[in-house]
Amino acid sequence: xxxxAQSSRPPGKRSLVATIGVxxxxxxxxxxxxxxxxxxxxxxxxxxxxLQTVCFGETNVAMHAYTLPECKAxxxxxxxxxxxxxxxxxxxxxxxxxxxKVAAIDLAYNTxxxxxxxxxxxxxxxxxxxxSACTEFMKWRFVRGRDCxxxxxxxxxxxxxxxxxRDACLGEN
Length: 173
Hints:
Oligomer: single chain
Number of domains: 1
CATH class: Mainly Alpha
Strand content: 5-15%
CATH architecture: Orthogonal Bundle
Helix content: 40-55%
Strand order of the largest sheet: 1-2
Number of strands: 4
Distance between the termini: 37 Å
Number of helices: 9
């Protein structure tokens, strides 16, 4: 029997593993879940302008309490969708290293697909301009004009996440 989160997968949607492979999927889930944290009950995400959020950063689902297994299934489904879109927006995606795939998908999950689509980072990925593309992650350390590399701005988790993405892109973690 599938959970509600599992059964919500649109017909024809590929799994995360089918899209990016076993090792990359495991790394992506580990990175994203460690940086998002989990809340089984909805809360207002202050960094996202008090946007209602639940589980591992979900904003486009019904806002009610979920079990941890439901949240984990939801994360896998969401990341699969992001992976498919990032892959379609990035010609040559399959030739990237697992770390490069993980970094791009996690950034898109955290900042939004439209931001990824219009980014210099994506253009450098397409041009295979590495490691220059990897340094682009650090440009995404701002939240509503605040530099998250500055401790007083109280958004250091964003800065840490960008460093982890950069390191994954460079193959350093």
